[in-house]
Amino acid sequence: MKLDTQLVLRTRGGRDVELRAVGPFARALALAVDEPIRWLLVAGCAGTLARNDALDAFHIAMVLLLVYGGYGSLFEVLRGGQTPGKRLLGIAAVTSDGSRISWRGALLRNVLLLVDVLPCLYLLGAFTITASKQFRRIGDRIAGTRVIYLGVAPVAASPPATAAVLQQAARLDVAVRGRLGFEAADLGCLLVARWPAMLFGSWLMTALPVFLLATAVFGGVSGIVGVLLWWCKPLYERLPLWLVSQRIRGGAPTIGAALSQWRSVYGDLAALLTYRRLTPTRSFDAPVAVLENLKGTRRARRVVQLRRGAAAEAAWLTIIGVHIESFIAICATSAWVWFIAPANLDLQGWLTFLIGGEVAWASNVCYFVSIASFGPIYAACGFTLYLNQRTLLEGWARNAV
């Protein structure tokens, strides 16, 4: 199965190349560089307005439009589609066919960042990127643009290309290389977008019984259910991992078939919940046990071999997942508390309210929703990172992704 994340071009020398779309992980890292610069500019403009007694809603809105529209547009049009963050990551904004971005497209996609940022911290943008086969946020869809990796790899065949695409490809400083770690992890998002019911359904089949049992026993005690849910997370990821590994090879597995593979899927249950629980590369290591059926010393040697060159990305995947889940849980719980808390509580009243059983039940539900939102994505991204590493080391399943 070929996952459609690239635009195939042919250079003047006749060599076929592919421009790979950039998924949520690399784009988030680029945003982490660009966003502080934007807000420094916003703060500077706001300070100037305050000194001139013009700090009101209208002028702040104008500043946001100017900074968000101007900062990205200037860099993307004048610097080959690259803001400082994009240049650091080796990515660039181009038109849908791979040609140079125009002023109109750059202005549209950057101003619409103010839409993608909703409701906060670019959650809408992250959702639309993850759900799109070409990793395009709302701004990219309306502006007719997308973000690509500038390093490209050869492919076997090329469809007809427009003159603009050929001209742009000839100017690109292409370099033959394999798929980078974050590129490989991005493919996991495509797997989730392609088979959401299978992946989220199989994840919930294990997670929901744990949640219901823990809630029935400890539901009124704040924190305990959340800790149990968090500690058992390796259990929830095994079933979706096995199913997606079969589906990507062209099979049509069922959850019943996966459950019949219980020994291979959950054969190392004790290790999962004890000394291997806090391994930061958990989603990357899991396929070694589930798909290769290795145990003990053989598994340890295999994991060490595969981690060379991929451990950093696997650990960052875990770190990103922890932050996403925590943020969703905090926002959901805070919103719930805000709307149901009695009015005019003093400090003592707030403390009594927050440690009450009703808040504990709600926080448990909010945390379960947060880990259910990212859990299948985490498992799928770890699998594609593992698959990419095997491809680089062994040439195995080269055409699978």
What share of residues are in beta strands? 5-15%
Which word captures the global form?
globular
Q: Outline the biggest β-sheet.
A: 3 strands, antiparallel
Element pattern in H and E:
EEHHHEHHHHEEHHHHHHHHHHHHH
Distance between the termini: 7 Å
Q: Could you say which structural class the secondary elements and strand pairing correspond to?
A: mainly alpha
Individual helix count: 20
- Average pLDDT: 81
What's the Cα radius of gyration?
A: 24 Å
Question: Helical proportion?
Answer: 55-70%
Number of strands: 5
Low-confidence stretches: 1-6, 153-166, 172-176, 396-401
The order of strands across the largest sheet is 1-2-5
Gist of the model:
With 401 residues, the chain is mainly α. The chain is 66% helix and 5% strand.
Question: What features would you describe in this structure?
Answer:
There is one protein chain. The chain has 401 residues and is mainly alpha-helical. It has 20 helices and 5 strands. Helix 10 (196-218) runs antiparallel to helix 12, helix 10 packs antiparallel against helix 20 and helix 12 packs across helix 16. The longest helix has 38 residues, at 357-394. The protein starts with 5 loop residues before the first strand and ends in a 7-residue tail after the last helix. Mean pLDDT is 81; it is low at 1-6, 153-166, 172-176 and 396-401.
